[in-house]
Amino acid sequence: MIGLGTYAFFWQHSDQVPQPLSLVGAFEATRELGVDLFQICDYAPLEQMDDAELTDAAAAARDLGLTIELGTKGVEPGRLARFLELAGVFGAGLVRSMMYSPDSRPTLAQAEEWLRAALPAYEASGVDLALETYEQVSTADLVGLVARIDSKRLGICLDPANVVARLELPRHCVDQTAGHVKSVHVKDFAFARQPGWVGFTYGGAPMGEGLHDYPYLLETVKPRENGVNEVVEHWLSWHTDAETTVRTEREWTRRTIEYLRSTS
Predict the structure, then answer these.
(1) In the UniProt record, does the keyword Isomerase occur (predicted)?
(2) C-alpha–C-alpha distance, residues 32 and 28, integer Å
(3) What angle, 0 to 180 degrees and rounded to 10, lies between the N-to-C axes of helices 214-221 and 170-177?
(4) Nearest to 73 by CA among 143, 21, 14, 130
(5) What's the pTM value of the predicted model, to 2 decimals?
(6) Which of 191, 202, 229, 258 places its Cα 20 to 30 Å from the Cα of 77?
(7) How far, rounded to the nearest angstrom, does the alpha carbon of residue 159 sit from its chain's CA centroid?
């Protein structure tokens, strides 16, 4: 299933635009694009909502016919337990997280201990926990952690763009994670020379125009055959003004959806 994530609305949610888009507004925009899944990922206001606000947001998603997934950072048992509760509110079948959070950088051994403590509740609830590939933890270490724990509810959120920052090749990341993927983050990426030809900037690109060999990911991971959702997000830098930035963000989203549909 194709989905949109909060990062596809990064600037539209931002207080740098005159009228920031609400969570329900993002749900509505997702439905207008004919997309059935929304991943609320690293969306700070979610954790500030009271019970009534959460119930109302979940009801809005249901009324629009959207499937919801959630995303957070960290593997502390309390954090994972809280997001399992939120998954119950939204009827979410997946929680994406990362090994590190702003407040915690566990060793692999500590992370394994915490995950083993949290996973029985996920298993009992039928909710998947997907740990994202990113530059702070090697893909080999992350896959090794998932393999050792060996829970049917624990897997990988595959984002090959992130690991370039630790000089891993995206294809190698795809190869290593292929047997464990439960979610895919979809965005393209590229390098550009900085002014003066000194150094490079690594950032986002319109889908299909950058360095991401997405057909290779489809061939290797087979997300569609395996029931793995493909969630659209972007690395989009601020443009000259709010109007231009938001227009570009929406265009990148439209183009990415079209790209994914064209490869089905």
Answers:
(1) yes
(2) 6
(3) 10
(4) 130
(5) 0.96
(6) 229
(7) 8
